[in-house]
Amino acid sequence: MASTEPKKTAEKAEDEKASADLLSKIAESLKAGTIKNVVVLTGPEVSAAAGFPDLHSFDEAMCARLEKYKLPFPEALFNLEYFSKEPKPLYSLMREIVGKKLAPTGIHYFIRLLQDKHVLLRNYTQCVDTMQLEAGLKPELLVNAHGTIKGSHCVRCLDRCDDKVFAEHLAKGQPLLCPKCKSPFRPDIVFFDEELPKEFAEHVPELGKSCDLLIVLGCKEMVTPFASLAFMAKPTVPRIIIAEHEAPDVLYGENRPTDMYWVNGMEAGVRRLVEAFGWGKEYADLLGKTGEKGEEQKKA
Q1: Which end of the chain, N or C, is surrounded by fewer C-beta atoms within 10 Å?
Q2: pTM
């Protein structure tokens, strides 16, 4: 029986050459100013690289972490009816998370660099930690599709709470009750069966109209309607998909000649783009070192 290894090796070499050619063309277009509306989609893997867990992924590790809270079922954590009666589990989990000293990684600073180069149209994110803002991204360029942990409102009367006061209660794991109706304040995270924030729908049309380069970072899994964003750019628009390990099925088999995959680590993938675009010095300056901040943080 003939070995298939030479064929696989040849196919891999061909794919790598095609990716290198595509990346070279993208770099040339950025330099020429013909690419000027980059859209970045970021997923939970970006947060995980900074130590912030995927709150909506109820895998084996997450379920084990939630056992001590005696939830009727894992998803109850973001079930509004359950939270209204039992807010303590979510507050306790958030205490574990916000109590850590988390900081943006090189991935966040790459998005900031796109902004500084005046080519970032928008960053749509499934992440809820807002670490992009800590990296210096302007709020108007960030669409938090699944909300954030920074703000809060009452589950009943919808009154808002001072962000600093709410953050203090999260840090203590102590539920904060509304002074008006005595119902708990909830973080501005999108709970199950809730609609996405209105800003999501407001900005989405720009993908089809203006996006000329789409970069997908850390979206191992994307749920609808966020998943639909990857298909809204015109068919001729290059799509760069960067993942930590295996290729994510974010394109549902709809591959285009202008698609490029990098599945050998997000930090490495971002550095490859930076080098190809000729932005190495600016990137290193943003990190404050030599571009290794994200990697060092993961090892800490």
Answers
A1: N
A2: 0.88
State whether residue 3 is helix, strand or coil.
Answer: coil
Same domain flag for 166 and 231: no
- Estimate to the nearest angstrom the gap between the alpha carbon of 90 and the chain centroid: 21
Helix (H) or strand (E) holding 240: strand 239-242
Helix 88-98 to helix 163-172 angle (10° resolution) is 90
Strands 142-144, 120-125: pairing kind: parallel
Examine the domain organization and report whether 88 and 203 are in the same domain: no
Same domain, 26 and 71: no
Is residue 55 in a domain? Answer: no
Same domain, 272 and 247: yes
Evaluate whether 20 touches 261 at the Cβ level (below 8 Å). Answer: no
Least confident segment among 16-20, 158-162, 167-171? 16-20
- Which residues are catalytic, by number? 146
Whether residue 204 sits in one domain with residue 80: no
Torsion of CA 144, 150, 153, 159, to 10 degrees: -110
Question: Picking from 124-128, 232-236, 246-250, which range would have the lowest pLDDT averaged per residue?
Answer: 246-250
Please give the Cα distance from 165 to 15 (Å, whole number).
52
**Average pLDDT, integer, range 37-54:** 90
